[in-house]
Write a structure and sequence with these properties.
- This protein is an all-alpha fold.
- About 50% of the residues lie in helices and about 0% in strands.
- It is globular and about 30 Å long.
Length: about 120
């Protein structure tokens, strides 16, 4: 049996998200794979097209991943797109995405412009 789980797509519907709401999910012992996958895809969608293609961060625009995290989190975001995140990958992603909690909240609230998932 495969150890890979499918990422379900739970609705992230809430009147308004803030940094602490996002941080609460990211700090969970067993973060929900579906929600972490959606957070990854939100941040990934904030990357420029070239950054997505190259798994790197070039533009200093305050959107998406930083240059240190870009390669690893872009890889996980692509796996999330195909619903292939494992629980371990989900835990690692959640740990690394804590620094992006404000950006995730802004994206969820539509405050950084429209992003396609």
């Amino acid at each position: 049996m495969s150890r890979t789980l499918c990422v379900s797509q739970p609705a992230l519907v809430k009147p308004a998200w803030n940094r602490s709401d996002v941080r609460e999910i990211l700090d969970m012992v067993d973060p929900p794979v579906g929600i972490i996958g959606q957070f990854l895809l939100l941040l990934y969608s904030a990357q420029t097209e070239d950054e997505q293609k190259d798994f790197a961060t070039v533009a200093k625009n305050g959107a998406g991943f930083n240059s240190y995290d870009a390669e690893f989190l872009s890889t996980l975001a692509r796996r999330a797109r195909w619903r292939l995140l494992s629980p371990r990958e989900c835990e690692c992603a959640a740990r690394q995405m804590r620094k992006y909690s404000r950006q995730i909240a802004d994206l969820l609230n539509g405050e950084m412009g429209e992003m396609d998932l």
